[in-house]
């Protein structure tokens, strides 16, 4: 009977990835992540164009999802940057002043660049 | 044909991210004791799927499109009560509170999503996830009418868990215990709801300090404190080494260390966990320190939870003369820790959840607010 030590789909690979995921699963997860990036990236780009509240709300959701998904596929730099964007958008949406503060916009720009690089790697 | 029939824990995974659904499925199904029987991409799909498939457990992200995770939990717990384990990414502030609201809405437990700075591997995460699902699948789930959480939150009225008549197993005789300075409470699975039920019935001018050790995924304790602080009369905060527990306040033990009572001025210390200690913060460690420092000038309360943490510490408190209370089986989400305490004869009074606050107040000479 399988137990917690017998992880058929999650055996350590000994590869550069320290995730412990099997190569097959990692390939599948990366393909799914590429799909997510494809879908969410255009919406994140809209943050550079004086976004309204609806765009900010959607971008918050996109950044939130990307942060978690990137962590799963081992894209730690994307995950950290997306988490910063998420936190910045959260403050922005809760704050009294409309618009996107420059530091958050800069993080968002960095995130889109990282995602584009990831897609084309 | 094999004579052995294994009960497989059926699970529905709910997440709008295909990456997360795929990962969670692999993590769960790496153990043949589990089977993912369905996946939902939003809250509405989750409600429908759970009603149709009736899984043993649901693993749900909180941040969902179409219908939020909180709304979905309320609907599921109202229509087809199921053990729901929620997971959430850390974000200072709102997400932690959302996780606590999910627990109050009927979710069994909360865990963090994998993060880029996690020290363990995803394989480690999968092991921890399945351990949580095992516990969740054994939890007693009750119908949880939609809107109940909000009503309680708005009114501050005491929540009531479980149903039917609740009678203490022993006569409700309040012993005369003058000079009680501290109420120490331990809880695990199902604890946040039970803590709310108990603390909401304590008055804001309580003369005693309240110290709480709740087993919870690292990072969620500040959210638990903020959530409770908004719903109960006593101010609620997270403890730190060197601070003093003030009368009329509730202090939660922080993640990552044991919180020990250091002296009778009610100063506390944070100490590293013992090697091999499974639950951090540990209830046994805190209760034992309270027993050593305050003896009969303390009350120990052990609430719902899996395992046996707290039982030995509660026994030490009882042996030093403290009033010791264990939550009864009928109102416990998981009757593990209180049962272990009863087995050790550490429990002086075993009470239904709704009777614990009156018993504590009676023991310190106060009437129920």
Q: In the residues of chain A, how many domains can be counted?
A: 1
CATH homologous superfamily designation of the largest domain in chain B: Methylesterase CheB, C-terminal domain
How many β-strand runs of chain B?
14
CATH topology of the largest domain in chain B, anyone?
Rossmann fold
Task: Tell me roughly what share of residues is in helical segments of chain B.
Answer: 25-40%
Low-confidence stretches of chain A: 1-17
The helix tally of chain B amounts to 12
Helix content of chain A: 55-70%
Kindly report how far apart the N and C termini of chain B lie.
62 Å
Determine and state the CATH class of chain A: Mainly Alpha
If helices are DSSP runs of H or I spanning 4 or more residues, what is the number of helices of chain A? Answer: 4
| Largest binding interface between chains | A-B, 40 and 36 residues
CATH architecture of the largest domain in chain B: 3-Layer(aba) Sandwich
What multimeric state do the chains show? heterodimer
Give start-end ranges of low-pLDDT stretches of chain B: 145-174
Strand count of chain A: 0
Going by helix content, strand content and strand pairing, the class of chain A is: mainly alpha
CATH H-level superfamily title of chain A = HPT domain
Overall mean pLDDT of chain A: 78
Measured by DSSP, the beta-strand proportion of chain A falls in under 5%
